[in-house]
Write a structure and sequence with these properties.
220 residues; TIM Barrel; eight-stranded parallel beta barrel
């Protein structure tokens, strides 16, 4: 088993960027987050130019490789391929998983999919997504047009979905215990790591809380 396959089965903390403008200090914060315990890093921006995304993404690709962490690109298959990312994360309005796999060609590439209901989660699993995002659990400025799905969906998915799922949306150190009690074993965050004074300490604190609560997963 490669370290990437092992990490995909065992990851606990998934960090998503929300870059709205070029930020000279972001790469330093990203490395602190990786050192603090982030297992998967997703490049996401709805406003940066393609040229800027390529510039930042190439540096994040090197950082994640250095720390042996998974690097995912949000939505953009073309950028994922250009950057040599480990995979892509698709939304409900993006290409189907099967089509994305044809474009990526490499079967080792990881495909995740966002879901906002049990039906969507079940369909994503049937499509062959490698992991599923479930949320937004709480309200979040990152997804202002989405109604929170709440903890009940986390409970349902934890009981009925076998592929790895990651709870996402408005999760921070304060409400993390509720999410874990609902059955999540993997958590994705944006502001809780990247909009704080110390990404290293924040990532470390979140990771520790997840590890203390979560049931043991398959070891690498």
């Amino acid at each position: 088993m490669s370290w990437k396959k092992g990490l995909l089965k065992n990851f606990r903390l998934y960090a998503v960027t929300d870059l709205r403008e070029p930020d000279a200090g972001f790469l330093a914060r990203a490395e602190k987050a990786l050192r603090g315990g982030v297992d998967v890093l997703q490049l996401r921006s709805k406003s940066l130019s393609d040229a800027e995304l390529l510039r930042v993404g190439s540096k994040l690709r090197r950082l994640t490789a250095k720390h042996r962490r998974i690097f995912i690109v949000n939505d953009r298959l073309d950028l994922a391929i250009a950057l040599g990312a480990d995979g892509v994360h698709l939304g409900q309005d993006d290409l189907p998983v099967a089509v994305a796999r044809k474009i990526l060609r490499d079967r080792s590439k990881i495909i995740g999919k966002s879901t906002h209901s049990l039906g969507q989660a079940l369909r994503a699993a049937e499509e062959g997504a490698d992991y599923i995002g479930v949320g937004p659990v709480f309200s979040t400025p990152t997804k202002p047009s989405y109604e929170p799905v709440g903890l009940d969906l986390v409970r349902e998915v934890s009981r009925k979905i076998k592929v790895p799922f990651v709870a996402i949306g408005g999760i921070d150190a304060d409400n993390l215990p509720q999410v874990l009690e609902a059955g999540a074993r993997r958590v994705a965050v944006v502001r809780a790591v990247f909009r704080c004074d110390d990404p290293y300490a924040s990532a470390q604190r979140l990771k520790k809380a997840i590890l203390q609560h979560a049931l043991p997963l398959l070891q690498v």
